[in-house]
Amino acid sequence: MTKGLSIQTKLIIMGLMLTLIPTIVVGTFMYRRSRADIESAVLKNLEVLSTAKQNEIDAYFEGLKAQGHFLAGMGDVYQSLKALRSSGYDLMSRRWLSMKEGVLGAVAKKIEELGFHIFFITSPEGRVVWSTDGSIPEGTDLSGRDYIQGALKGEITFSNFFYSDAIKTSCIAVGVPVFDESEDNTLLGVAAIVVTEEDLSAIIHSGIDRLGKTADAYLVDAAGTLLTNMRDGEYSSNPALSKSISGWAVTTLADAVSKNDSSFSGTSKYRDYRGVPVLGSVTAIKVGQQLVGLVIEVEQGEALASVANLKAFTVTAGIIMAAIASLAAVALGRSVARPLNLAVGMLRDIAKGEGDLTKRLEIQTRDEIGELARWFNAFVDYLQGLVKEMAKTSDDLAATGEELTATSEESRNIAQQISETAEQVAKGAQDQSAAAADTATSVDHLATIIEKVAEGAQAQHTSLETVSSVLEEVNRVFTEVVDALEKYANVAWDNTKAAQAGMDSVKSLTASMDNIRLANESAASTVQELHDLSQSIYDIVDIIDDIADQTNLLALNAAIEAARAGEYGRGFAVVADEVRKLAERSLSETKNIRDLISRVAAAIEKTVNSIEASSGEIENGHSVAGDTRKALEEIYKAAEQTQGVVSDLASSFGQLKESLNRADRAVQDISASASEYFTAAQEMTKTSEHVRSLIESMAAVSEETTASLEEVSASIKEMARATEQVSVSAQELAMTSEKLQEIVRKFKV
What we know:
Subcellular location: Cell membrane
CATH topology of the largest domain: Helix Hairpins
Domain HAMP: 334-388
GO biological process, one term: signal transduction
Number of helices: 13
Keywords: Cell membrane, Chemotaxis, Membrane, Transducer, Transmembrane, Transmembrane helix
Shape: rod-shaped
Protein name: Methyl-accepting chemotaxis protein
CATH class of the largest domain: Mainly Alpha
Order of helices and strands: HHHHEEHEEEEHEHEEEHHHHHH
CATH superfamily of the largest domain: Methyl-accepting chemotaxis protein
Number of domains: 3
């Protein structure tokens, strides 16, 4: 997928991946972990608050029971009911009326001080005889109320939630029997305290706002009927006993209440009656003597607002880190790709045979890239020297080839001249033989023939001397050619050794790259160990977080207990608050530590991938060095072939030289014979007596001359063939030299 991408693009992609992937993973982990922790903390707070509310309601109704007993036992109440009984429960009697204005007025003030709004007294028949604010008319028959019936039986009795037509609201009441202790505990009537829905809602709603603006608390029965008002919304005003709701909380509590499970409690995240996601707690509690359900909940959006902020912060941080990583990857990619691109371009030109060997890579760093540039420049230096030497050698070879071609042409011309001279000598020998025959028949022409023979012998001797000198010159030229070929053979051998040295240098470069790759792998292993250690620190920080969470929870419980203790727990509340602050500070510091470790881990990951990217580029350099070694091997083979051609050419010239030597010896033999013939001719001019014998000798000499000329002709033909072979070899040498020059001219040195 990434094979066709440049190194710079790969580094940008890796930088983004190394930034975004850890950011997304860590951000998602932190988001989920934080969400779970906050959910757990909120649910724990809801559980603690539910327990606190349950205890508060239990304490309130226990206090209500005690205060009802206290009020029923007050002398003013007791005396007033006793006076009413004495008047036959006549509500219009003068004594009762005076008691209402005086004694019971003081009772009303006491009840107001205790914080109750409604307090009333009934007769033993259950009819109201007095109430604090007159909200319940006198004479109202309440005998059918369960709490009145229970009190008339002599027991303190709580009512269930009910709607009072008298006070036009839902409420709960406690009835307390009033006895005449002076007359065998005769029942005088019932004293009752009424707690309205508003009073209960105030108790339930107190402190709920600490959970959030959307926090709410309310009571429901097994059928889902609201028993108290809600803080906000459509059920915040007079929904008690008139409105019913549904949902997970109601369903769960209905099951527990129907089973009379007073120990039931639980927390969860769910959708409330409106369908809004909330975190809530449900608890079965007794209000008076009725088992009902207490629901405390807060909207998830508000409870987990800090998690949403963390999510936004993580996304923003990821975008910023991605931008920074992109810029860093671009800068790093340019610093890595630029020298590599230059090296690849130069190697590409060299591989195509069009390289500029005068250029060098700039060495700006001391890392692996700088080391690669340094060794690449050394390789180009050596290659430049090698190409220069090859250029010089090819020039020498071209000059030698031209000289050899000219020499072979001259040798061919000389051979032609020798051939023509030999033909002339052969013709002269034939003429001489004919003259000898004529001399045998005609002695009269002897003097003339002898004179002609002498002249022919003289011309023959002169021609042979010319042939001998030409052969000596050709022999000298061939000696120079053979020496030049031996010199070029030595140069070709030097080129072969230079190519071998180049291959050895490339092998050394490859070994150095292998060492660098091993060093990179060792560094990557060390950095990975550092990454594992940072993960261990993560685990330790998580343990500290858990301890801080538990400390915070304990501090919250301590604060609740201190609040319940009132004045005596104030000092302990201060200590609990300090412990809570210390726990929050511990959480904050561990978060900072986690952030630092995250950045260190990200840097470690980036370092590991940078080392891996460098290893990949070193592998590419290793491959390029292998290609260069192959090119040097081709040069080495070409040099060996050139050396072989030169050796063959030297061998051919050696054979040609031997042929020339044989021709020279033959000419010398002919010259000696011609000299003897000339002496014989001189002797023939001195005496005619030996004419016939001399003519016979001359005929014999002519025959020998003809045979020698035939041998000379054969030698000349052999020399011509050798000369042609030299010419062909010279042309091959010229073509090889021209090809080598063409290769060298492609390089700029």
